[in-house]
Queue: 3 jobs
Job 1
Amino acid sequence: MTTHHMETLGHFKITVWEEENFQGKRCEFVMECSSIMERGFRKIRSLKVESGPWVGFEYPEYQGQQFILEKGDYPRWEAWSGNSAYRTEHLLSFRAIKCASHSDSKVTLYEGENFQGRKFELSDDYPSLQAMGWSTKEVGSIKVISGAWVAYQYPGYRGYQYILERDRQSGEYRKYSDYSTQAHTNQIQSIRRVQH
Amino acid sequence: MTTHHMETLGHFKITVWEEENFQGKRCEFVMECSSIMERGFRKIRSLKVESGPWVGFEYPEYQGQQFILEKGDYPRWEAWSGNSAYRTEHLLSFRAIKCASHSDSKVTLYEGENFQGRKFELSDDYPSLQAMGWSTKEVGSIKVISGAWVAYQYPGYRGYQYILERDRQSGEYRKYSDYSTQAHTNQIQSIRRVQH
């Protein structure tokens, strides 16, 4: 076991169950899981994050809708899914978010693609970007300077979730399809830091 | 018209529609509405907050589930409802939140009722109270020192929402039924400031 493995073991732990309310088949993870079906699960219906944060994905191989999973108990799918219109009860892969820092997070939003147009640098949570002065409902591109962020389709941290990390593609999300592969919309109306 | 009215007109504005995506019958409000049915609406299916924040309620007379409404567009009920388990599509009354201050908000959480037991003073947003060091999933009582807050049943700002204001009952929520009248649970796993 390498030093890297040891560190990972110390920092991240998630337990998943096949049934709601932490019932039925269970499994603990300290590393990422690219497909829960390969562990003999049909689906995940409840989970506990003992140390995080993690990001869950609708499909295997980290594809589809994203679900931010910070420390705490998630007894049913609606505890992690913010998008009840497109009602998926799938959470089939997940991985740790290693660069989260609640106290040192910076992100710049740009009106246009490729970091063009009006911009705004944030280091705090904003449940309403419009209230902060952002004039549209859309964000064209995003540069994460430090930490990890989660952006949402609707105000008040609702709707589709987009996890944005300094560690992924150098923190550069040049067009909306870089962050919103699953949603086919560039609407972002709230954004917040991810908590370690 | 009194001075108080003039101030209210300048600070708060919400527009509601009877159908999704801002269609059908519409009405603008700059003051609270204790029953949308009295305005001839059957229900509200979409809304825009032009200046806020507001709090919406499931039932007339500010009863039932609470929904925080900050500046932005809410094209469907899932944009404001964080609780898909108990699927209510009702939002039948609403009022402005006058004491919100994103930059000056303080709240103290207590383990026991009547401000007893272990306590924690917060002035920032916490998507996971457990990650911050709060050892249980419950909060016994809450004292709002300044501003307005919204507490949530689940981590990551999901599930039942509880609006907590300095201006209401002197900011003192002595037992869980003071803040959670509709939910019959004292589970709080995340909390954040309300944005003006």
Note: The interface with chain A takes residues 49, 52-53, 68-74, 76, 78-85, 87, 125-132, 137, 150, 153-159, 189-190, 192-196 of chain B (CB under 8 Å).
Job 2
Amino acid sequence: MSASRPQRIALIGLGTIGISMAALHLSRDSNIVDVFDTRPDFEDYIFKMLPNYMGQIPSLSSKQNPDARPSTSLVTSLVSSGRLRIHSTLESACASATIIQEQGPENVDWKQSIWAQVEAVAPPSAHLWTSTSGIAASTQQLQMRNKTRLLVVHPFNPPNIMPLLEIVPARGTSPERVEFAREYFSISGSKHRPVVIRKEIPGFVGNRLAFALLREACYLVKEDVVDAKDLDTILMASLGPRWAGNGVFESYQQGGGEGGIRAFLEKLGETMQNVWDGQGRVNVLGDEGTEWKEKVIAQVDEAYGTLSAEQIQEKEARLKDFVRIQTKKYTPEGPEV
Amino acid sequence: MSASRPQRIALIGLGTIGISMAALHLSRDSNIVDVFDTRPDFEDYIFKMLPNYMGQIPSLSSKQNPDARPSTSLVTSLVSSGRLRIHSTLESACASATIIQEQGPENVDWKQSIWAQVEAVAPPSAHLWTSTSGIAASTQQLQMRNKTRLLVVHPFNPPNIMPLLEIVPARGTSPERVEFAREYFSISGSKHRPVVIRKEIPGFVGNRLAFALLREACYLVKEDVVDAKDLDTILMASLGPRWAGNGVFESYQQGGGEGGIRAFLEKLGETMQNVWDGQGRVNVLGDEGTEWKEKVIAQVDEAYGTLSAEQIQEKEARLKDFVRIQTKKYTPEGPEV
């Protein structure tokens, strides 16, 4: 079945990511979304939380104000129309699904157990997606009989705004199921940008890049080259806006002028190798190389404290603007309205 | 003398960075800018190139359209009013300077030689700044008698848009001269954000962070985890916009919820350490670990080719928008106009 046709999606685990995913799937007017979670107040929780996310994902087929925040009446109408179905058993949630997606705990035993249970109750054709940020599909599916169905669909926080979805199949995942997931998130009108990762690797690609930069950042704070807040200022005043508009390879292709990235690597090669040879090798676990942690935590706490709801809202508004500008067209006469 | 008072700036070396710096200094209506370069067509070159940059840096004291591109008549008027002075000798360019800034070749011998010459002809009070991206002030000043005057002022490309200036003193640079540079670029109305780096280190901070991420990016392409263009998409669809609005430490402080970055490091610690233990150790110089280069260069060439002038203009317009949004205020009712 084509991924652009209406789907029936069963969501397992409705934490922050799960609720946001529900909003995303419901933004397509013909989808039906079945939700299941073991929390005792599950129904009340859905009525309370879902409206906060629905407003942030505009319907793909209507021109409603994307900043309006719908009330619980929207959830009532979704439930009464049958587009949103709240379940008290895994079996009933999965029974008619074309897609089953889990956002449960990041725990190997839990993931392996849930997929074995899902396999026993779900239609054999259903696509199986995990939102994990760290546990590969090949590990999660160890207790399953059919090892061609499961793949990672890793969103970035907050998934209702961040365009990226990393699609990471196991070695045995069928190519048709990979393509189905990619097609589903590429649907016309979607703001999301799915990318297929070719090999399973810890942290996938986005977090590997982020953690590589973070490691050097922690090292520079540890060595008193710069404090945490000034390092953040440096990132925001240079690499952040650069990488919001250009990838790292594209930036250096441009930076090398007519010679492209080859010229750039030649011109900057000596400084680059010096930096690479001297990179920080701090650790986050274990006894050695972890002395930076208390210093970094103290500096970050002092710089930012706990962000208020208003601060987070302001940051989300700004993030939406950044993402909007990424697809804006500029004419030679000036920006389009 | 206070950095907020009118300055007389001698610029040595008028390549892309130098021209852009001239535009930046001239945007303050009371500054006088003296320029010196050894290229034979220097005067024609200034008349031809400077207008391309002047329009992009709005005057701090007038409300001209920042997207308008002034013509050579602006350069004529700057020259006839004495605000811009084109010199054929280093001595005459430096004679009355309060600030002397070089953007010459990234070559140790050239830098050491030019500062020894400058010291012989410049007023003893003049501030000495180098725009180098790789040669520390302590190395550049080896042939100078007074080692308290020179410091690095490292801009990011394109410096007329990018807010960051890394101010990197040598160990012996006087604190007053560091503070003067910081104050100069922090002047009210300036879009620039100077940050003082506390220790000399190869690549300073911005390029160390960029190269740490680049190294992992090259490794992931080498290992066929992802191709260069998909890696760029991943960066633009997640970390770029995140780091345009939040620093890396602030992002993880927020990501940890009420527990802040401490909770984040605990929750993600295992994945993070796995990523750190498996980080790519590719090299850019030497014989070992450089096999990625031709693969990356070929993929980047195929993905982007040579960027056209129109593409670069569009990218600069977008970059300006990103930087503008960084300082925009959002009200609870929606974005301010």
Note: Residues 8-203 of chain B form a domain with the Rossmann fold fold (CATH 3.40.50.720).
Job 3
Amino acid sequence: MAKIDIARRVYNHTWKLDPIVRSLLDTDFYKLLMLQMIRGMYPDVNVTFSLINRTTKVRLADEIDEGELRAQLDHARTLRFSKKEMIWLAGNTFYGRKQIFEPDFLDWLSNFRLPEYELSKRDGQYELEFHGPWSYTTLWEIPALSIINELRSRAALKSFGPFALDVLYARAKAKLWAKTERLKQLPGLLVSDFGTRRRHSFLWQRWCVEALKEGIGDAFTGTSNVLLAMDTDVEALGTNAHELPMVLAALANSDDELRASPYQVLKDWQRYYGGNLLIVLPDAFGTASFLRDAPDWVAGWTGFRPDSAPPIEAGEKVMNWWREKGVDPRKKLLIFSDGLDTETIEETWRHFNGKVRMSFGWGTNLTNDFDGCAPMPAPGLKAISLVCKVTRVNGRPAVKLSDNPAKATGDLSEIERYLRVFGDEARVEHEVVV
Amino acid sequence: MAKIDIARRVYNHTWKLDPIVRSLLDTDFYKLLMLQMIRGMYPDVNVTFSLINRTTKVRLADEIDEGELRAQLDHARTLRFSKKEMIWLAGNTFYGRKQIFEPDFLDWLSNFRLPEYELSKRDGQYELEFHGPWSYTTLWEIPALSIINELRSRAALKSFGPFALDVLYARAKAKLWAKTERLKQLPGLLVSDFGTRRRHSFLWQRWCVEALKEGIGDAFTGTSNVLLAMDTDVEALGTNAHELPMVLAALANSDDELRASPYQVLKDWQRYYGGNLLIVLPDAFGTASFLRDAPDWVAGWTGFRPDSAPPIEAGEKVMNWWREKGVDPRKKLLIFSDGLDTETIEETWRHFNGKVRMSFGWGTNLTNDFDGCAPMPAPGLKAISLVCKVTRVNGRPAVKLSDNPAKATGDLSEIERYLRVFGDEARVEHEVVV
């Protein structure tokens, strides 16, 4: 072929949009698992998801053009699950189980589209909210986040010339490869990609997933990104998220119901899933209170995912609790997923190796680490702590306490009520970077 | 990005092979339908497939390098159906029917690999044969043909500079687009791609399929290529081929069994398939004799695919036969698939419009028409009549008579026996171009 494909070039001239999200499968696997349960058990609950930028010094509304943001969100609303994708969801084996999604759920999913959004600007930030039935608004979380994060990368790269871009990606590739070389020194290590929501870009996440597949081999257990799992033939991974206890807590009609809600989540969950999907996420209202009040049967679940306390401290607490319940931690699984990078993975692995089964869900520092890669200052390439959280449930405010007060969300008065019910034991503030 | 991706360029320098066939789904759909029946009913029959170049003036062994041919055939033997492909075969709807492939067949298919081949040269031609159980050798037909055809295109293009290549594809695209503009003038026309085996190249076939999808819209009913059907989300099409009557005829132990064999094929077929898959291929031993001896129930099948007589003449004969059986041809389907191009499609459509349902399986002149496109003489780009046919069945010679003696294959003495049993009625020689 000639060096320049004229038809392609002219086509590119008339591009209206380079869509960031091109498939409804470009989301985290646990959203689909949760969605099946939400639709089955809570079809009438209304839930608002809201964008929250914890890195307030970054003024997103100044960095990202509102027209571009609306065009990307509108494009995501045109998507449907394609025939091939529906067939794959129905036919693939997830966590060793065939037909994890029921035919009735898949029928409904085949007509799914993302609901409307509300977007405005305030103090240099975007206020982006999704109102409506939980079973619809929940699927906005991941595409909303990945769209905003990629639009921010694109804005940061607009001034880069072709060589600067080439060098940027060359360095980022070298940097990630060096991480894989360190990680493959750890025998028996298990790592997966959890980096969809805060990725630099879709293509870069795909590069990272393929690099891990080649670079660490069997130590790479899969990706949370369903589309990449399908396309690169790796496992789709993930279990459940804070939205479940947050919504059930907000639905509670008394302090007693509120106190019981974290365990109600687990009861609901095990109606749908078993085996390695029985992973407790204990920190929505503080891990200490969760363990203190947990019924004995919780120790029968496969494992825990501590997500906001420092991993060694959090893991030790869970292991002590298992021992108190007469359970051998070596038969149990800890999944670490909070702000991991090579150092924390190494340190945590060394600490727990031989004492407990463990795996690592590696997120932002896998798919969006460009620190030191740009040949010129580019603050817009530094990942920020952006989340999309449940804020209202049937008109009531929703709350997350977390083990780290810097990760708490919700109305202050409501947070105080939750602290009264659950206690404030062992919650320690740590800087939230991503 | 910089204009030249150095990593990609260096990777290309070390390419050992640009595989032509990269997936076992890169075959014709009817091979999989037939395979399910072959494995179910004739698991112990040994069948040899042999390459036959009817365009003898083209000396394939001079045009195509033997090392390259072996490398491509060897690569095809490394392929397995991938997990995603198996899930799609199990979950997709074919001809309106779910689970057309039985779980037991799919289990077996998931371990399928192409058997060994025998390759030698003789008189400037390749002798390429596949020996073994029918349920294995049958899947070699399409990849063997598409490999040889694409190697021939590649050889022809080796001397082309970048501009000559650019102009070649520009003209070929313009030429195909002009065909779509003519075809979309015919209201209610139905056309599908049957051009896998003799395509110019895989990428060009994909371009043709996507061009038809955009160019003639609903008039494009799908492709025989299973991989392209999956990837471009169109219907996978095709029913059955001459190998079924040829093998059953060769297995016949008497002239009476031989005479009955074309109808035995249909009885076998309807144990597995129904509806629009009940398409009679009548010409293996001459359409006239087939119709003369056909039981009445054959008129209950959905349609016929005349494949070697001129389409109008062949279609009229089948329609007369339907009328004799008291069947209204307007409720029946004719599928034309022999050496079609725009003119024959238009002429045939005009002749039969309103008299019978019809559709067109467009092959070589869709996916390998570069006549007048090269800016320099390139005889190697002209498609040839290359087939891969059953030649021996459990040690006995196999025969095809066809409506066109130029398409007959088999030992001369055996052809004479078949002519004695079936008769030579209405068989007329026509030049075979592709």
Note: Chain A touches chain B at residues 1-3, 82-84, 86-88, 90-92, 162-163, 165-166, 169, 230, 233 (CB under 8 Å).
